[in-house]
Amino acid sequence: MRKKIVAGNWKMHKNAEQTEDLLNELIAQIPTETIAQVIVAPTFVNLASAVDHLEFTAIIVAAQNVHQAESGAFTGEISADMLTGIGVNTVILGHSERRAIFNETDGLIASKVNTALKHDMTVIFCFGEELKDRQSGNHFNIVENQLKDGLFHIENTAWEKVVLAYEPVWAIGTGETASPEQAQDMHEFIRETVRKAFGSDIAEDVTILYGGSVKPDNAKEIFSKPDVDGGLIGGAALNAKDFVAIITAI
Ligand code: PGA
């Protein structure tokens, strides 16, 4: 079912003590009446403690990545089984930093999607164009291809485990955000692309988040657009005041 979601991607920030401090602040400050499903994605080493810490709350813990193989000689990697074993059932895949810095291709992301779904995990599937794509007017094409090559091989029934996160690369961590109109145009296009491939029910039900420099002062306007169902937040998720203000904006 389509939900309102605000997810915080903590990237490689916050040691154990800082993780606990921020979680305590969130527990204290997120209004109980919020309609948003709140998700936090701390770094791997702090996932287990975050799950414990949030046990009696409605906040969900997500991982920032997972390896595509079940197990094996993959030094430094983390499997889906390891994540679900500690109570982490949500994973962010295809983030632009993983695509750009760690060379993750659509094909690799597709196999990670398969592994995560096989383990009954919820996938927050990230995609979005680079600045050069938007400048050349190619952004709709790029987004369509990322969806088709990374995600559209899944079964209809798997869609209930998928959240889409449109994140224009030029807006991530830059302080420059897509205008609410640009976000809405792309979200509408994304929903239409899903509709063409999987039908209206799935297209109407899928949650589509916007990510890229969402801050307390722009969140409300972006979230007010009909096809924007929430946000994936980086920098502003690292302090409770801003993150809670964004949650409240929904
Ligand atoms: P940002 O990051 O909010 O700092 O732009 C968003 C993201 O990377 O998901």
Observed structural traits:
TIM Barrel; TIM_sf; 250 residues; 42% helix; triose-phosphate isomerase activity; globular; 11 helices; eight-stranded parallel beta barrel; EC 5.3.1.1; isomerase; Triosephosphate isomerase; binds 2-phosphoglycolic acid
Q: Can you count the helices?
A: 11
CATH topology: TIM Barrel
Please state roughly what percent of the residues sit in beta strands, choosing from under 5%, 5-15%, 15-25%, 25-35%, 35-45% or over 45%: 15-25%
| The CATH H-level homologous superfamily | Aldolase class I
Which hetero ligands occur in this complex?
2-phosphoglycolic acid
Shape label: globular
Q: What is the name of the CATH architecture?
A: Alpha-Beta Barrel
Provide the domain count.
Answer: 1
| Number of DSSP E strands | 8
Task: Summarize the structure in words.
The chain contains eleven helices and eight strands. With 250 residues, it is of the alpha/beta class. The protein has one domain (5-249): TIM Barrel (Alpha-Beta Barrel), CATH 3.20.20. An eight-stranded parallel beta barrel has the order 1-2-3-4-5-6-7-8, surrounded by six helices. Helix 3 (80-85) links the parallel strand 3 (60-63) and strand 4 (90-93). 2-phosphoglycolic acid binds at residues 9, 167, 172-173, 211-214, 232-236.
Quick summary:
With 250 residues, this protein is an alpha/beta fold. 42% of the residues lie in helices and 15% in strands. The protein has helices at residues 16-29, 47-53, 80-85, 96-101, 106-118, 131-135, 139-150, 180-198, 200-205, 216-223, 240-249, and strands at 5-9, 37-41, 60-63, 90-93, 122-127, 162-166, 207-211, 230-233.
